[in-house]
Amino acid sequence: MVAFEPQAECLRHLQSRFRFKRNVQIQPVALSDSEGEAVIYQSSSHTISSMSEEFVNTVAKTVFADDTWDQRATINTRTLDQMIALYGMPGFINDRRRGV
């Protein structure tokens, strides 16, 4: 299994949780339409983040009005095609664009 997690705090949690699982690989990247770097917008609740400024501007005043969105981080990105070339065709993809 391969997981992709660009946020440092979440990455540390996953690495700790799966440190003894040899069949789990955690890549410290976000999947995007291009390889490089991107900005991720993080709320005061570290479980809520997005690479979409439009999403943040929409939900910050409504759904997540109690959270502040003043944290940003530059993260590495790779494409799904690059990851398929490395790991093969995925059996499951959790597409978080439909939510947070």
Please tell me about this protein's structure:
This protein has 100 residues and is of the alpha/beta class. The chain has one domain. Helices cover 25% and strands 27% of the residues. The chain is built from 3 helices and 6 strands. The strands form 2 sheets. A 4-stranded mixed sheet has the order 3-6-4-5. Strands 1-2 form a two-stranded parallel sheet. The chain is globular and about 40 Å long. The two termini are 23 Å apart. The model has no long low-confidence stretch (mean pLDDT 88).
Describe the structure using short key phrases.
3 helices, single chain, alpha/beta, globular, 100 residues, four-stranded mixed beta sheet, two-stranded parallel ribbon, 6 strands
Provide a short characterization of the protein structure.
By secondary structure, this protein is an alpha/beta fold. It has three helices and six strands. Strand 1 (2-4), helix 1 and strand 2 form a beta-alpha-beta unit.
SSE map:
Layout: E1 2-4, H1 8-17, E2 25-27, E3 30-32, E4 36-42, E5 49-50, H2 53-59, E6 71-79, H3 80-87
Parallel strand pairs: 1-2, 3-6
Antiparallel strand pairs: 4-5, 4-6
State the total count of DSSP E strands: 6
The Rg value, from CA coordinates, equals 14 Å
- The main sheet orders its strands as 3-6-4-5
Unreliable parts: none
Helix/strand/pairing category: alpha/beta
Overall form: globular
Helix amount, in percent?
Answer: 25-40%
The amount of beta strand, in percent, is 25-35%
Distance between the termini: 23 Å
Number of helices in the DSSP assignment: 3
SSE series: EHEEEEHEH
Total domain units:
1
Biggest sheet: strands, sense, closure? 4 strands, mixed
Mean pLDDT: 88
